[in-house]
Amino acid sequence: MKELHTSLLREKFVIHTPEPVKLPDGTEGKSAVIALSNRIEIPLVNAKGIQEECITVRAHTMAMCVRMAARILQSYVSGGPLLSRSKPYDWDYAWETALDDYEKNFNPIRWVAIYSEGKSLFAKGEHHALLDVIEKCQATNNKDYDHSIPMAEKAINGTGQDIRIEYDGNVALAVHLENPQTRFGVIVRGPSKTMTFNFAVTARNGRSINYPQCLGSAAAFLEGIQLCYMVGMNEEKIRLGLIERHSREEKQTREARTRLGRLNAEISTLEGGFEVRYRPERPEFQWLLMDAEKLAKAIFAPKNK
């Protein structure tokens, strides 16, 4: 594979309908449904620079989305195009192996949806049907994704419904896979600030860059940064008695800290095999945990009367 340039989008769709809904206070309000998604396109380009396939991944979390993309890329690098094989690609196996036990045990609403040229290739879990309509519009829209959303709104309204789609999308990961150097830009929103950093992976001793491994490490950062805030906040809640000992939430916090260790090891493996440079610096999970604990103390500290 020659190179790959893409980005991960973190998306929020607010679908407004004219029918009023009953609010908790008994009054009527406007009806709106929120659909969340993370989306990344994987253009599969051969060594001659010719794109053979383009596969789109949507998933419940950013890390799940990037990990599934890494599985697809690994299969393409080792076996060529996925969609024309005599033995069909095992999407279900790829999805199951992309998930860690932590995600399987503590994220029951996890989902994934895979597309190519607007057609659904695989889906697991529950995602909003709007996403399928958008992908169909994207396939006929000369790859202009921004215009695909109003196209989807028009297509749905053409069936007799009356909706309005409000869209908010932000790049969470910029990906530039090339030899001999691969670059990533990471933009992750935390509870108190947005963290932005870049890292570059350079080959050593004539060794080729392992693109799927690099994507996996990017996913480890995305997941790890978010887990740090959850673990730090919850550990302070446990200390204050806001989370009961031996509860499911306490167990999840403990397992999430263990998961952070595995993610850190995955990143360290990349650093051991290639030259990895960070700008401005490598996000250290331990420091992020401490920042989250400080934030939790400020939020949950008893107010002076």
Structure, explained:
The structure is a single chain. The chain has 305 residues and is an alpha+beta fold. It folds into 2 domains: 1-170, no CATH class; 178-305, no CATH class. It contains 8 helices and 9 strands. The chain has a 9-stranded antiparallel beta sheet, with helices on both faces. β1 and β2 form a beta hairpin. It is globular and about 55 Å long. The relative contact order is 0.13. The model has no long low-confidence stretch (mean pLDDT 92).
Unreliable stretches covering 5 or more consecutive residues: none
Average pLDDT taken over every residue: 92
Determine the structural class based on helices, strands and strand pairing: alpha+beta
N-to-C span: 65 Å
- Kindly state the number of beta strands: 9
Q: Work out the count of structural domains.
A: 2
Count of DSSP H/I helices: 8
Strand order of the largest sheet: 5-4-3-2-1-6-7-8-9
Helix content range: 40-55%
Strand content: 25-35%
Q: Overall 3D geometry?
A: globular
